[in-house]
Amino acid sequence: MTNNDIFKKLRVALQLRDDEIVKILELVDFRITKSELGAFFRKEDHPKYMECGDQILRNFLNGLVIHLRGPKPDKKPKLEGKVKATTPKRNPIKKIEKK
Hints:
Helix content: 40-55%
Oligomer: single chain
Strand content: under 5%
Largest sheet: none
Distance between the termini: 85 Å
């Protein structure tokens, strides 16, 4: 199965139009025109057929994740002001003296 086949099947399964695919690719800063995109969906024997490279499919999948899930949230919450890290104070162990 080629990248073109995978791209076609995803397009049909998710009911995406060309302009929606262009917007999804723009989410990951990848620019492509509708006519360039149409070349991927043509039959292999068509003179204007173009192979879909790994980079295009990868960018589409990454953009699709952002489109469906939303942007990735920040891992660390932003803190206001400086917060000093403190270490817990140790309780010294008292030695018991024998009499």
